[in-house]
Amino acid sequence: MSASDTIFALSSGGGRAGVAVVRVSGPAADAALVALLSGSGGSADGGNVDGATPGPFSWPERSLPAPRVLRRADLFDAEGGVLDEAMVAWFPGPRSFTGEDVVELHVHGSPAVVRAVLTRLGQLAGLRPAEAGEFTQRAFLRGKLDLAAVEGLGDLIDAQTEAQRRLSLRQLGGALSQQVEDWRADIIALRAETEAWIDFPDEDLPEYFFPTIRARAGALAAEMASRTEASHRLAARVRDGYSVALVGLPNVGKSSLLNALAARDVAIVTDIAGTTRDTISVPVDLGGFLVNFIDTAGLRETRDTIEAMGVDRALRAAEQADIVLWLIDERGEAPEIADRLDAARVLRVATKQDLWRASSDTASRQAAPLGVSVVTGEGLQAVLNAVQAALLGQGASLDALLPMGRERHAFHVGAAAAALEQAQAQDELALLAECMREASAALGRITGAVDVEDVLDHIFSRFCIGK
Fold first, then answer.
1. What DSSP designation does 121 have?
2. Taking the CB of residue 136, how many other CB atoms lie within 10 A of it?
3. Three-state DSSP state, 400
4. Mean pLDDT of the chain
5. Which residues contact 313 (CB under 8 A, 6 or more apart)?
6. Are 133 and 7 in contact (CB under 8 A)?
7. Are 249 and 337 in contact (CB under 8 A)?
8. C-alpha 318: how far from chain center
9. What contacts 24+ positions apart, CB below 8 Å, involve 439-445?
10. Is the separation of the CB atoms in 327 and 248 below 8 Å?
11. Which residue has the higher pLDDT, 376 or 353?
12. Of 229, 346, 345, 237, residue with least CA distance to 289
């Protein structure tokens, strides 16, 4: 990818739509717009085609619309035929998303119109189709977005729940970047004070110098650790979702409950024990948070090799889940299951309420305070309420949460805090300054201020083409 190229792509969703947005960015964007508006030939040089019939919204020859104003105009092909009646906007750099000259074409969203417009752009000299994430990458390289904001934009595009939307908007808006830069500024100040004394070796250090620097570094490391530990844990759950494993004996109703929670048939339900062999995950929006409910194989001893593999996967899912729904029917609790589960994370649910015999009802209900029937719908909302309370509780406010849901955020903050802690043991100025340099560099990698070339391709490759 070359920054000297002018790139173009469909930036809205594919398929049939009322409106589609085609974006062009680069040094030839304005000339490309002139070519489209005036019906010029096969290059972005401007000029009308002889004999072209102006449409009702044709544009004056070789002119551009006013910057940052959405205007209606005809778009022409190379022969002067009308491609579409569109709305166009021109954003001269650096006041644009990418920091370059940018053109947006709001055309009718039929596949035929979009295909014709993209074909026309591809005929213009100096233009090429954009790679995945290339618009956002140019915005980053020109300083319009830092790396944390780029990740927030990607998360916003992928957001499925209200919590994901709110958290990714805060990250895109700079909530994480500002906090990281504040910490980094404090560390750079400590480093500057230390290096100032290195430059004057003949001067005697004050007795308070090392104790003061160490105390400030230690307090900063403690603040970083306390602020990020809970934030990263919750932000990661908001971004990736909580997990709830459904476990129990064969034919206890796990797959039926999963289908009821998903409001569609996602798991096969039969009377044959061992039907479920692998884990099946279904995402559910619960109170604005993403919760993945996981159906598992029935827990029992078996000589069937494939079913035994399913049982092992069920146990692993239960171990890794945030909450386990232990489903119990009229057969009662199974001690062998209880021995394998962490009691602190278990919610007992009595299933098949519509089929229970009166003689077993009381004892089973005592074992499982929650009851559910997927046939009548009885108890479904109570189960969801219990899961929500167990997972979220009172919960931290998303508005106060530091949006650091990615592992690399926590890793680099942890590395910075560790470097500050290491500074506590240094009694030489050069070593103390090196600890501060390592700490500031670690935080700089979060926003892309230093040394992030190795992660750029990975991050931008996850964006869709046109963004």
1. H
2. 24
3. coil
4. 81
5. 278, 279, 296, 297
6. no
7. yes
8. 25
9. 439/187, 439/415, 440/184, 440/187, 440/188, 440/191, 440/416, 442/412, 442/413, 442/415, 442/416, 443/180, 443/181, 443/183, 443/184, 443/187, 443/412, 443/413, 443/416, 444/184, 445/408, 445/412
10. yes
11. 376
12. 237
Q: Give the burial class of 413: count Cβ atoms within 10 A of its Cβ; 0-12 exposed, 13-18 middle, 19 or more buried.
A: buried
Peptide bond between residue 403 and the one before it cis (omega within 30 degrees of 0): no
Tokens for 454, please give them. Answer: 């190795």
Out of 182-186, 251-255, 391-395, 449-453, pick the least confident.
Answer: 449-453
Q: Please, how many CA atoms are within 13 Å of residue 255, restricted to the half-sphere of its CB?
A: 20
Q: Give the integer Cα–Cα distance in Å for 451 and 441.
A: 8
Strand partners, 242: 291
**Interaxial angle between packed helices 209-240 and 175-198, expressed in degrees from 0 to 180 and rounded to the nearest 10:** 160
Token couple for 88? 């166009």
Task: Give yes or no for residue 331 having a pLDDT over 60.
Answer: yes
Q: What are phi and psi of 73, to 5 degrees?
A: -160, 155
Its CATH class, for the domain covering 248-343+353-378, is alpha beta
Q: Which CATH number fits domain 149-237+402-461: 1.20.1740.10, 3.20.20.60, 3.40.50.2300, 1.20.120.430?
A: 1.20.120.430
Residue 16 is given by DSSP the state: S
Secondary structure (3-state) at 163: helix
How confident is the model at residue 51, as a pLDDT?
Answer: 41
Residue 401: pLDDT band with limits 50, 70, 90 = confident
The domain limits of the chain are: 6-144, 149-237+402-461, 248-343+353-378
Least confident of 17-31, 87-101, 195-209, 428-442: 195-209
Cβ(286)–Cβ(384) below 8 Å: yes
Tokens of 154: 């990607």
Residue with tokens 């954003």: 91
The yes/no answer on whether domain 6-144 falls in CATH 1.10.3720.10 is no
Phi, psi at 250, each rounded to 5°: -60, 145
Contact 121, 32 (CB under 8 A): yes
Q: What is the pTM of this model?
A: 0.73
Q: Among 29, 28, 32, 26, which Cα is nearest to 142's? A: 26
Ranked by mean pLDDT, the top range of 41-55, 209-223, 275-289 is 209-223
Question: DSSP of 193-249, one letter per residue?
Answer: HHHHHHT-TTSPPPTTHHHHHHHHHHHHHHHHHHHHHHHHHHHHHHHH-EEEEEEES
Q: Residue 44: what pLDDT?
A: 42
Q: What's the Cα-to-Cα distance from 188 to each of 192, 193, 276, 402, 433, rounded to whole Å?
A: 6, 9, 57, 22, 10
Burial (Cβ within 10 Å: 0-12, 13-18, ≥19) of residue 250? middle
